[in-house]
Amino acid sequence: MFSPETKVLVVDDMMTMRKLVSKACKNLGLKELTEAADGQLAWQVLNDPASQIQLVISDWNMPNCSGLELLKRVRKDSRFKSLPFVLLTAESEESQVKEAIIAGVDNYITKPFTAEILGQKLEAVYKKRSA
Amino acid sequence: MAALDLRTEERNEALIIKFPGVVDANSKDDLEKNIKMWQIKELKLFVLDLKNTVDFDRNLYKIIIDFKNNLEKVGKYMATISVSNRLKNSITSEGMASAFNMVGTLGEAYKLAGILVASPKKIKLDTNFINPFITGTMTTFETQVGLSIKPGKPAVKKTGEKFMDNIALAGIINLTCKDFTGTISIAFPEKVFLGVYNTMLDENIEVLDDEVKDGAGELLNIIYGQAKQELNRQGYQLEKAIPTILAGDNIQIHGGKQSPAICLPFESKVGRFYLEVAVAL
Predict the structure, then answer these.
(1) Which of A12, B15, B81, B166 lies at a 20 to 30 A Cα distance from A57?
(2) Nearest residue in B to A12, CA atom
(3) Inter-chain contact A14–B200, Cβ cutoff 8 Å?
(4) By the 8 A CB rule, do A37 and A63 touch?
(5) Closest Cα of chain A to B188: distance in Å?
(6) CA distances to B9, B138, B256, B265 from B262, in Å
(7) Kindly report the CA angle at A101 between B43 and A98, in degrees rounded to 5?
(8) Is the backbone peptide bond immediately before B20 cis, with ω within 30 degrees of 0?
(9) Is A58:A85 a contact under the CB 8 Å cutoff?
(10) B137-173 pLDDT, tens per residue?
C-alpha cells in the first residue's frame, strides 16, 4: 500500500467531495494531502516542483478541465507518465470506463464509496505500479 | 499539443462524439489518437456532433476525410450533425461537404447507416421507474453518508400542492432523455441537512454556508448516477446532468408544471428528508 508519506493530490470541484476523499485517505493512513478545485488548478500543482505529487485522485466532471482531460495531459507529459492516477465519478457506463482505461487511468472508483473501497482500489494501483 | 475535450456515447450501434467549441491545430495529435481508438470499435456508425463547435481548423479536415474513408473500406459509416451555418460554409467552401457527410439529425445518420432505432420508451411513473431512485438514495446514504435511512410511503403530489415542510435546502437535477423531461430533487430542513452533513464528515457544522450547501448537490449527483445506471439498463437513455442548489426559508419544490410528482419521504435518526421525481407526461 502507498506509504503514509505519499503526497496525494485530491481534485474535485465540490468541497464536500474533496473533504470526503481526504477523510477516506486519512483513514487509510495517507497524511500528505493537497487539494485542487479543478483540473486546471491541479495541473498547476503538478507543475510546481515543490509539490512532488505521487498519487492523483480526481473527479471526472469538473469545469475548466475535466478529470479525463487532466489525465490525458498527465500521460502526455514525460514527467508524469508513470504518476498513479485514479478517477472518481458518479457515472459507471462502460463507454466511460473504456475511455478512461484508454487514456491511461490506473483505476476507477464509482461513487458512492467508502474508505475501504478506496483502500482496495489504491492497493491494486500500488501493486500494479510496484510490479 | 492540447488535449481535445471530447464526450462520447455509444448508442444503437453508433458512437456519438461531441466536439468542443474549438478544434484547433493543437488538437491534431489528440484527434488522430482518438480516431485510432474509434476505428477499432465494433460499431457501425460514427457521428460527429458539432453542435458546440464554432471553430474547426481546416488543416484537420484531411484527418476527418481519412477517417471516413477508412470506415467505408470496412462497410462502416461516418456522418456529421448539428453543424452551424458558419462552419458549414467553411467546410463547403473547402470542397469538404461530402467528406464530412453533414446530415440534419441523428435520426438521419442512423438511416444512412441502416440502423433501426427502437420506438421511444413510454414513460410510466410506476415502481419500475421509481425504485431505482429509492435504491439509489438508500445506497448513497448507507455508503457515503454512513446513515441508515428508511423509505416512507410515496405520495403523488399535484402541481402547486404543498407536501414538504420547512425545507431550507434542495438540490435539483433536470432529467433529460429523448423520450421525456423531468426533474429529480432532494430536499432537507436545515437541521436535518446539518445532521446528514456532520454524520458524513464527522464534523460539527452549525451553519449552512455555500460550501456546506453544495453537499446536497453532491448527494443528489450520486443518487442520480445510481438511478440512471439502472434506468438506462431498462431502456431509458438519461443523460448526464449537473445539480442546481436552492436555499432559503420554507422552499417549495415545484417539479413539472404540467404533471404530478412522486414525493418520497425518508426517515433517519437526524430527521426526515424528501426525494421528489417529476416527469412531463
Answers:
(1) B15
(2) B218
(3) no
(4) no
(5) 17
(6) 30, 17, 11, 10
(7) 30
(8) no
(9) yes
(10) 999 999 999 999 999 998 887 666 666 778 999 999 9
